Batch of 3 targets.
Target 1
Amino acid sequence: MTRERRRSGRTTSRSTHQPGKSWLRIKNPYPPIAQFSEDELEAIHLTSLNLLRDKGIKVLSAEARNYYRKAGARTSEDTLMVQFDSDMLLETIRHAPSAFTMHGRAPERWFEVGDNNLVFATVGGPPHYSDLENGRRAGTHETFCDLLRMAQNYDVIHLTTPMVEPQDLPIPVRHLHMTRSVVTLTDKPTFIYSRGREAVADSLEILRIAQGVDQQAFAKRVHCYTVVNANSPLQLDELMCAGIIDFAKAQQAMILTPFTLAGAMAPVTIPGALAQQNAEALAGIALAQIVQPGAPVVYGGFTSNVDMKTGAPAFGTPEYVKAAFASGQLARRYQLPYRTSNVNASNAPDAQSAYESQMSCWGAIMGGCNILLHGAGWLEGGLTASLEKFVIDIEMLQMFASLMQPVVCDQDTLAVSAFDEIDPGGHFFGTQHTLERYETAFYTPLLSDWSNFETWTERGSIDATQRANHIARKALGDFIPPPLDEAKREEIDAFIEKRERAGGASLTA
């Protein structure tokens, strides 16, 4: 099959922290860093194939085992194991597109996934929420909505996620109200949990109504994505298999991400953990292509390590960065888009959270990732979504977005004329060359305070976390939701009311 490659060719000239000023389409101009030589990468690849051939992967879904069996894999109804012929597996994966386009509700909210395109998503899935005013607490629907408002507010964020779990909403109807909030407070592509077939179908229907298109037209574009986590080591459960199948049939994007923490759910060595990650990713991606050849999929890398003294996950470590570099190499070997994450293990939006996130982002971005999940707001190893960390991360992401913009080197930027305006030992502040570029010469910070110590103390000496809180509160206070046609809103509300009367969704495969 000919592999589809679409290229945008469009980027913005600079990053912005002003909401609504631009829609960033970012291309990474730097060659990705390789962790392993070609021979070493091939050894990981072959180890993965041998693992899937000789041991296989346990698949708890009878429906998925049936798909695998019909495609030529060896299945056992006694052990629930599925084993793959290597040639069959690789030929199946070749059907996956190397790039695809995602579309939001607003016409301009589209971007490419794959090639050297780079998109940022928010934190996804924590059960807890924190801010300076009220500390750490269980997530609610209102805190979820606040994070949606923040995601809509900053154009460096391309994708929304389930940013915190609204535990005040009953589970059978939680997805209905979450998806309604997504389409009324944002106009960007979004995430849908694979938490059962009814919940997936309900969420897709709400997105379709908000888009104002019929089922056939909806299926022609990618509007949303899900994340499927293998139950590492070497297992796919029923809900995850159902998610792969449903998203493949709906032609919506699926990110297959093994949860491989070296020393716990994967071998303690990085190559061993990566071989397992690769095997699990290939098995899940193959299922999507068996169900629907050409379905949009993304190779997910999440390999990190644990604290061997406590078993606690560790993120933003040198090992995480090395695994991110290597995962990018593996994804490119199979010509698949690559997802990784901005993660940290800090319990507060402090220096540790910043330097671990910075390490994670460097590993992800210079490893060639296409989708950076958990880009803004992640704390406590993914257990908490922090309002202040959200703003701190936005600053960091905007700096990376600015870094990705090309530097033009020509007669004008070489500033030859400026040298004619200054005397040796003078300065360039007042030259015409400087004044013409005064507002656009450099990145404009959202959060950073570059004032001197005396000015800083006169203003109250607040630190970055406190400034982040002030910025967030102002952004939330000034928030204006994107327009949504009232007829669509009413149709969505009628659909939700109908589904609530029916008892909501059964969270089963």
Note: The first helix runs from residue 38 to 54.
Target 2
Amino acid sequence: MGLSTHVLDTMHGKPAAGMGVALLKKQGEVYQLMKTLVLNQDGRADAPLIENQDLSVGQYRLSFSAGEYFRSKVSGLAEPLFLDVVHLDFGVSNTKEHYHVPLLVSPWSYSTYRGS
């Protein structure tokens, strides 16, 4: 299945439908954009971000537009926001495995883990 993600809005207790996400891959010292997407009603991408046959060993980054998402959902958040874009950097070492990288996020905190 390659690489997938989903986001849970822990402030509201629901999927982060409509949040923007960018996928980047590290090339040398910089990250190169691979794709951008908007999460569906279930807080997920409609398809894998990368299929197994296209996944390669290396360093990746998922950038989640959490600030933009929460600005659209919550009025009166103090500016500048505590969290704006959440970057998750992670490594892929085995392209035969599935890498699921979820994000649990509020305007003030986030956590992640390698899911299944």
Note: The mean pLDDT is 96.
Target 3
Amino acid sequence: MAKIHRATVTEADLNYVGSITIDEDLLDAAGIKPFQYVIITSLANGTFWQTYAIAGPRGKGGICLNGSPAHHFKPGDMVIILAEAWLEPSELQNLTPTIVFVDSNNKITDVKKHSLLPHDAKA
């Protein structure tokens, strides 16, 4: 599981078959694999879209919504990209999702790992 937090859409290509093209540097940092299922949420309008990721040119900062999502996501929109994973309940205890933070040019500013707190943890 992973998240690319507050990325900026750089392109929307209505005439492409479908998917989201993501800079390969961002995919690597998040651990997202090409053709992995992702959810994209728009901070501009609340749109929630499900598709698969494809690798874009490394180091260019590209985030391109392809096909029909191009009607809902426009260049300049900020998005959150969430990579899904199917897990067994027993795997949740050791889950450490990766969160990739980016600047307005989709360059990585920080990468963090999160883990679950035990239910009996005191705040």
Note: The helical segments are 24-30.
